[in-house]
Amino acid sequence: MTQKIALVTGGMGGIGTAICKRLAEAGHRVVTTYSTPGKHADWQARMREQGFDIATYQCDVSNFDSCASMVKRVRDELGPVGILVNNAGITRDGRMQKMEKSAWDDVLRTNLDSVFNVTRQVLDDMCEANWGRVINISSINGQKGQFGQTNYSAAKAGVHGFSMALAQEVAKKGITVNTISPGYIGTEMVMAVKEEVRNQIIAGIPVGRLGKPEEIAALVAFIASDDASFMTGANIAMNGGQHMC
Ligand code: CAA
Ligand code: NAP
Fold first, then answer.
1. Residue 190 belongs to some domain of the structure
2. Is 34 a catalytic residue?
């Protein structure tokens, strides 16, 4: 497969780091974003030590203009994006009756608006190239709902609605749009859940453990490859059997 520019949002997080490495191993020129100022230096140094040269750009994915200027810089400095992995995301858990408006807004903007904000910037180039991959990272909790996550479950369900609609619009242009719905993966996001609650969740996973970021990354690499050209509008679950549909 020819080398593409692969843009992974939130690539310095648990799942994002594994995705960046896996796409780099597949031969792509990988670019990632961070929103916390200064975060990139240590991460990039660690990647270099491991043999990965990954370009980094600051961007707030919840802000349309920030995404526009980030993608413009990527295009000017490296070239047009061929593979986009919309991975950046946050949680602000709490029961609906206790949920502040800001927790709703932050989660919807970061997890759902972001998918529009970034994809909108790369689609014209993909259409022109007659090839593209948009891979949206949703969640098991967008498929089944989760106590304490009305905001997150709504955003993540919305992500797959976006994938299904866009998949139809761009299928003739050689662009596929797919959703991955991971179950609980061992990253900071899951470690932020109280230990007692987390242990109850793990007890409900038939495979008996949390997933690994590398397992999600392997699926991303497959969807990004030419072998997956006939897969579009799909929502692929990888959740240790916690939810089957
Ligand atoms: N089902 C039913 N009842 C539940 C419940 C559940 N899953 N979880 C809590 N409750 C009940 C408690 O039993 C308690 O009931 P009583 O008042 O009758 O005793 C009540 O809810 C407690 O409510 P509080 O508002 O006081 O909640 P809390 O401070 O205990 O915390 C919570 C609530 C934040 C939702 C906490 O339970 C929690 O963190 N749950 C896990 C949420 C979760 O799965 N988050 C995933 C984060 S990782 C991620 O999102 C990645 C991904 O995509 C998978
Ligand atoms: P993580 O380790 O917390 O990483 C999240 C990443 O998102 C960070 O790199 C963070 O970068 C970035 N981010 C957050 N807000 C941003 C913003 N406004 N603009 C730009 N980047 C932003 O989380 P993770 O577990 O790897 O999760 C990655 C994705 O998988 C998320 O979409 C998550 O919802 C989804 N997911 C996770 C699990 C799981 O169990 N872990 C399960 C299902 C789905 P900064 O710190 O620089 O902001």
1. no
2. no
Query: Does the C-beta of 36 come closer than 6 Å to ligand 2?
Result: yes
Mutate which of 63, 85, 152, 187 for ligand 2? The one with the most ligand atoms within 8 Å of its CB, which is: 187
pLDDT at position 17 is 98
Global confidence as pTM: 0.98
- For ligand 2, what atom is nearest to the CA of residue 138? 44
Pocket test for ligand 1, best of 15, 144, 193 (most atoms within 8 A of CB): 193
Q: Residue 36's domain spans which residues?
A: 5-185+214-235
Cβ(13) – ligand 2 distance below 6 Å = yes
From the CA of 190, give the closest atom in ligand 1: 48
Reply yes or no on whether the pLDDT at 1 is more than 90: no
Does residue 146 surpass a pLDDT of 90?
yes
CA distances from 166 to 116, 176, 179 (A): 10, 9, 11
- Atom 6 in ligand 2: residue holding the nearest Cα: 10
Instruction: From residue 161, give the alpha-carbon distance in Å to each of 26, 143, 164, 211, 234.
Output: 29, 11, 5, 25, 10
DSSP strand E in 12-76: where?
A: 29-34, 55-58
Q: Is residue 218 part of a domain?
A: yes
- Binning the chain into helix, strand and coil, the percentages to the nearest 5 are 50, 15, 30
Residue 234 has pLDDT above 90, yes or no: yes
Confidence (pLDDT) at 74: 98
Q: Is residue 203 part of a domain?
A: no
